[in-house]
Design brief:
Length: 348
């Protein structure tokens, strides 16, 4: 996204920028399927590629069938190792959508290695690296995205091994089954880990998860020089609801609010429950004006006649996460002080 500088150092989209183009919308959609942090994704993907490359380089050290094209396998292994080391060093700087392309290159590299090695002990061993693809996808992507990567890996495995005879067909079945099991297992582990970062009532990210999301969003905005806004939202008179109608009714209101607001989010946005009746929405790519309008739409869909106050802030040049949140908190205080049921943009 192209941006210019507004007053106070705020980042503002230039005309013709934003997510209006189809490629940008596709990139945003792909980015929304990456559920792991940039650091975790870079480390895991880098480790998987490095391990596959290093193991592939061992092929010439052992006697091989004459059908194994060792030179081509070594070249692929060296390239995989190079990609892995690059991901470990610079992978966190990649946009989220690019991790899908990196993993697809891994599937391609494994497929080419199998073609070069044939249905030999080395070829079957190299085909087992499809499980690395499943592990990476299962730990980093949503279920839908993981399913797509696993499907591509299974089809590639079958396409490279089945044409080579009955032995190749059996190996393809075993390796494909292993790949699917690895994907399911890693996805289950991811969901278990994610449950520690989820609010038990609403299922939204909790304060622990929010802290990581915010820091990642700030780092990315500063690195890409793109807009980032954050809003703090506090339900008006929520204590009255709890005191007069009971905590069960208060819980139902919180659930209804979370559902109503989630339906208004765009790909890449994050809504979290900070605690009690306080919520935070992270809006990557939105400047202060756009974010204020979008938060206003959240207030407009409040359920059951309830109301909410919000403070909105955007990231300026040189701002830290602490500065961003303090401005949003001050804006929220102003919204409460000036009558509630409104979204107030931060002032500089």
């Amino acid at each position: 996204m192209q941006v210019t500088r507004g007053a106070g150092g705020r980042r503002q989209p230039t005309p013709g920028g934003g997510l209006a183009s189809l490629p940008a919308r596709i990139a945003a959609t792909l980015s929304s399927t990456v559920v792991a942090s940039a650091d975790f994704t870079a480390v895991l993907t880098g480790t998987v590629f490095s391990a596959g490359g290093a193991l592939g380089l061992l092929v010439p050290l052992f006697p091989q069938d004459a059908r194994v094209r060792e030179r081509e396998v070594v070249v692929l292994a060296a390239l995989a190792l190079l990609v892995g080391l690059s991901m470990l060093r610079w992978g966190r700087l990649l946009p989220s959508w690019a991790t899908h392309l990196v993993l697809l290159t891994g599937t391609l590299a494994v497929s080419l290695a199998v073609v070069f090695a044939g249905v030999t002990p080395a070829g079957v061993a190299l085909a087992s690296f499809y499980a690395f693809v499943a592990l990476d996808a299962g730990m980093c992507f949503t279920r839908a995205a993981t399913s797509c990567h696993v499907l591509v890996a299974v089809l590639a495995c079958g396409g490279t091994m089945i044409p080579q005879g009955a032995t190749g067909a059996y190996a393809a079945v075993v390796i494909s089954g292993t790949t699917v099991v690895v994907a399911l297992g890693s996805g289950w582990l991811l969901r278990v880990a994610a449950s520690a970062d989820a609010d038990p009532l609403t299922g939204l990210p909790n304060r622990r998860r929010l802290d990581a999301v915010l820091q990642t969003a700030v780092d990315r905005a500063q690195r890409t020089r793109s807009p980032l806004s954050v809003a703090l939202l506090d339900l008006d008179h929520f204590k009255v609801v709890n005191d007069s109608s009971g905590h069960d009714e208060g819980d139902r209101l919180l659930l209804a609010v979370a559902h109503a607001w989630t339906s208004q989010l765009a790909p890449g946005d994050v809504l979290a429950r900070q605690g009690g009746d306080e919520f935070v929405v992270v809006l990557p790519g939105s400047d202060l004006t756009e974010a204020s309008a979008r938060v206003g739409r959240l207030l407009a869909v409040m359920p059951g006649g309830s109301t909410c106050s919000a403070g909105v802030s955007d990231l300026g040049d040189g701002d830290s996460l602490g500065v961003l949140m303090r401005r949003a908190d001050a804006a929220l205080y102003e919204a409460k002080r000036s009558g509630r049921n409104r979204a107030v943009p931060a002032t500089y």
